[in-house]
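Fig. S4 source data, part A: sequence.
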Amino acid sequence: MATGWFRAVPGENVDADAYNNDEAHWFYADKKGDVVKAQIKTINGHKYGFDLNGKMLRGLYKITFEDNGSAIASAEKIENEADIPESSEEGVYVYYFGDSPKEGAMKTGEVTLEIDGEKYQYRFRKSGSHKGAGADGIEENAIYVMGRKLKADKDSRCEAVTYKGEQYLVNTSGKIMKNAKNTRDADDMYYCTDKKGIIIYKGAEKYKK
């Protein structure tokens, strides 16, 4: 009876593309020899994700869970810019399974990821019931949406971003620009913000009381 990690080409009924391309994936069998499926499991001190067929997850994923909160209901890989969530989705979490310290190990904390040639900053929870899930909210004067930090384009100086129905002004590092007065972007638009960084004025001319 095989236990532990093993690498194999999935059967055609498990992953037709991998089967046809002769592409091997990692799987893990528990002490009883059963393949671990549809869960995030701690193995030798590291957490790993497994899809519904038992394939180890590797990369950035949108994951939903069953009502019990632990069994994975779906795991959709984020492979290009179009896959990146633009807003929070109820019951959907973003996780990253990287290559360090072990291949496929779940990451926490700050991570810079390259998607479609563009670099994105992500933050993943270090604790809590959904440890490893992308941060969602305002933390340390920055806005995170399912892990991704909202930032102005590098050529824009600053940019308006929408979060929970409000427009905030952020700079190229993602910092919320609070109490800004006539801050000008690369398109010569002027902005003023309140103490929370919410935009209260935007115009081609400087704001004058």
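Fig. S4 source data, part B ends here. The mean pLDDT is 94.
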